[in-house]
Amino acid sequence: MLKGILLKTLSTLAFTAMALGVRAAASTVPVAEIVFYRSLVALVVLLGWLGLSATLSGAWRTKRPLSHLGRGLSGVAGMFCNFTALALLPFADATAYFYAYPIFVTLIAGLILRESVHVSRWLAVLIGFGGVLVMLSEHLGFGAGFDVKMRFGAGVALIGALCAALSIVQTRRLAQLETTGAIVFYFTCSCAFFGGLMLVATRLFPALGGAYVAPDGRAWTGLIVAGVAGGAAQILATASYRYADASLLAAFDYLAMVWALLASLALYGETPSLAVLVGAAAITVAGLLAVSERRFQKAIKFVIPNKIV
């Protein structure tokens, strides 16, 4: 169990490093280029890992190509949105919005897929949305720090969280039928393909996202860091589930918020506002409540033995 927790913790650090790389490149390079190069570098890292673990041949095999395509589309859409938010918002703010995705997962599962959702998860949705609204109060014009860029960034970040939730729901279904190697491999390939497609489109039609920009040294460093760290994060997160339950490890995802707050302060001198801190705390509590559903049920049954939950 401890090994699983360690691997998961390292994956949150790697995801934070990826986001820092994205932000470094985003100052000069359009998002389409960042998605493409990040995915291309991550694919190289992933292929190396699959080769060393002797699972490369299994990664090619799939019986659900259309499901992988759907997951890839939602995942790459989320990547575009999240990378755009990182370019527009303070680092900690963009990270906090992204971790609203468990709220959307619960809504999709309960309202669209008609899955049975325990009362604790609906409570988590309410708390989480409260946290999002508190953060939005600063970015949508109700606080002193309002500007148009912040408003657009907040909206894009929430769309990114929704896309991430769609990708996660699809991944859960694929996990019942496909190997982990195949899921990660086809997702990374999809991101590289669609990122490249968007890159070509923006070169032909610059209005879609800006003309191609040849990365300078700083941008190349950010792109390589984003790709290597992103690929490593996927590998570490995947490996962690071999040693501990997913319900336990999900709670450690929120360490990324801690790393983001520290990085914002240390690297950019950005001190999150009270609204952002309160909102991020509420989102974290909501996420922890959602992933601790079984413990919540046991507590309810202990306090009210005859209650049906």
From TrEMBL:
Membrane topology reported for the UniProt record: Multi-pass membrane protein
Keywords for the protein's UniProt record, in alphabetical order: Membrane, Transmembrane, Transmembrane helix
Pfam families attached to this UniProt entry: EamA
Annotated compartments: Membrane
GO CC terms of this entry: membrane
Main location: membrane
All copies of domain EamA, residue ranges: 3-136, 152-289
Entry annotated with the keyword Transmembrane helix: yes
Similarity field: Belongs to the drug/metabolite transporter (DMT) superfamily. 10 TMS drug/metabolite exporter (DME) (TC 2.A.7.3) family.
Name recorded for this polypeptide: EamA domain-containing protein
Lineage, broadest ranks: Bacteria, Pseudomonadati, Pseudomonadota, Alphaproteobacteria, Hyphomicrobiales
